[in-house]
Amino acid sequence: MPCGGGDIGLNVWVENNEIFFYIGKSDAFDENNGLHKLGRVRVKLSPNPFSEKDFKQELDLKTGSVKISGKNGVNEVEAIFWVDVFSPVVHLEISSNKPISAEATYESWRTKDFKLRPGENFQNSYKFAPFDTIYTLKDNMEFEGNNVLFYHRNKNKTVFDDNVKLQDLENVKSQLYNPVRNNTFGGKLFGTNLIPSGNTKGTYVNTDFEGWRMVSKSPSKKIDISVCLYTEQSKTIEDWKAGLAKVELQVKANKKTAKQKTQEWWQQFWSRSYIQIQPENSDVSKPEWQVGRNYQLFRYMLGCNAYGNSPTKFNGGILTYDPVFTDPNKKLTPDFRNWCGGTMTAQNQRLVYFPMIKTGDFDMMKPQFDFYTKALRNAEIRTEQAWGHKGASFTEQMENYGLPNPAEYGWHRPAGYDKGMENNAWLEYQWDTSLEFCLMILETNRYANKDITKYMPLIKSCLTFFNEHYQYLANKRGHRTFTEDGKLIIFPGSGAETYKMAYNPSSTIAALQTVLKGMLALPTNYLTANERKDWETMLNRIPPIPLRQIDGHTCISPAITWERIQNGESPQLYPVFPWHVYGVGKPDLDIALNTWKYDPKVIEFRSPMGWKQDNIWAADLGLTDEAADLCIKKLQDSGRRFPAFWGPGFDWTPDHNWGGSGMIGLQEMLMQTSDDRIILFPAWPKNWDVSFKMHAPKNTTVECIYKNGKVEKLIVTPVERAKDIIFQNIQTSN
Fold first, then answer.
1. pTM > 0.90
2. What is the per-residue pLDDT for 734?
């Protein structure tokens, strides 16, 4: 069961009458850029208060806490987990009707340097490196007074250095942002009346560990156990310890008000957006009820990393656990996840953050936006070094410092291969996805009037790359920079990871059109007159979205031409989502519908699994039955003990891009926007009662209750936006 807040995630469970929890934090990156757990804590109470008859474990969404209660004879205990949203500290509050004693043991499997086994490098940035000398280096653990102190400090030399050398950037290394060097993460375990009681050893699941045990000096009815965490790129370990001490002081100073403020944060979180399906009929066997419940559960999981220094990762976030329970063949440590820790797969990351627009969770989007701004200069420098022009070339498999992942860049590259290119069949010429994060930034301004001045250099640089790079490539091929009608020639391009060596891919064209139009629609203070003129010129140079005939039906084409199909995506529908060129209430909807119905690859690739977007496209095309069917397959119970731990899909468990794409699709079934219009129920089953609150452009919120086939309540704020509401195939009551 997940529990979290701020940027800390816990996995909480009870096993053999002992309470366990893993600790995850968004910025715990080691030398290899793996995202480590900060350890495991085991709590044993005496006398044992748990029995099979009287035991309960509950996730309380309203307060963001996990409650464990038990009764064994005359002993009754309640244990409450909560994580401070505003300070990096975990709290476990235990209360009992009789005095009890506690053992609290900090457990670690990183007690010595450990050579990584075959396949284990997929948890870090080395992946399939051609050398077998990669180690996870040990942490430091010790008793410090009545505390357990634990930390990991990265060495000066990390995977960053190997990657910079591989990409021939050592001449500019001093200019590059490096978040891995000297990264230090860890914390302290302490508790009420707890004192050190020696060390333990054992094996949990399939991993050996050592423990640092604390015990109660005397029995008590109340026991508080806390874990205080801290991460810093510190010059020395003494600096890190001083930073941790400041956090401890802050925690103690805020002790009286911290819990109340955290609970108020969660109450505000739930009040700003929700979707509840069949709210008056909580039949857990009904798949549509599961959809509504699991939407809420997954949004809670996203809220656990609201304010991290690093974004919520698509492949498990900060809530991964022993990998053997995801893949029986992965008998590895709890640090393992597939597709790396510090590597961000942009196509997957976007699905984690797009749903936050309609939920109004704009503050939670900051870690992902800041990820790109921190890495911006690195991406620009590598463009300058490789091709001699301007603009940020953000690749698809990208490290948290903006350079391509070394494995996808290629450990063994052909002589003379383009320095700026990834030597990878799936990822070559795949630059588009950074534009989706540019769109999200623009949407925060359009929806909530957020000041995006900080992010304008990012948007401009991403557009500049496309403008300059494709002119650069055209001039390398021949004498003319543009087509005879003055259009940019996007070749070689890529339709997502699927249509390779493409000429004018529709996904790229829709991206450039949409982001340019969005930027030009910004208030005048964001662009100078000359800038506005330059971007208008670029917009006029973007070619039209390519179309083709399939069995006599006009459809969106993946591109004008392509050389091969490499993956299983349908980028010919990206003009529907995320770019919303086509959709309900928009021109030429029939062309997009034809693409859904008749394109053989679109049909072949259709699936609810993982990052697949078919549920979103069905909703945006107004296909109610198809959208509902795919939505249920996306968001019904996962089959795991926690119903919103989907996966592994194509990635890992919990699969956050599975949950994110499910959220987006459900939102689009309920509400879509077109210009100033707000279209309600564009793809909603008439027999699904629902209560929801979502956000729309122009600082608008829409609250609605739909019951027994009619809208019973509608509140639009501000009220003048009510005139822009359009109901699609739904009745309203008098």
1. yes
2. 42
